[in-house]
Write a structure and sequence with these properties.
The structure is a single chain. The chain is mainly α. The protein has four helices and no strands. Helix 3 crosses helix 4. The longest helix has 13 residues. It is elongated, with a radius of gyration of 16 Å. The model has no long low-confidence stretch (mean pLDDT about 90).
Length: about 60
């Protein structure tokens, strides 16, 4: 169905389902320091990025 509607045209699809701002808010709310890897997999960001956001929220 998609092929027949858009054939020959270019389509754009977002790489991530959630925006950075929303994920930062969710990480600050949900992260306890022990679930960094789980949140990284859930939101499709790296472990390092999730940890950086979590650590940044603890300094405020």
């Amino acid at each position: 169905m998609i092929y027949h509607q858009y054939r020959g045209g270019q389509m754009w699809a977002p790489k991530r389902l959630y925006g950075v701002k929303l994920v930062k808010e969710l990480v600050q709310r949900e992260c306890d320091g022990h679930n960094i890897h789980q949140l990284a997999q859930q939101y499709h960001f790296s472990d390092q990025w999730i940890e950086k956001v979590w650590r940044g929220s603890k300094e405020v």
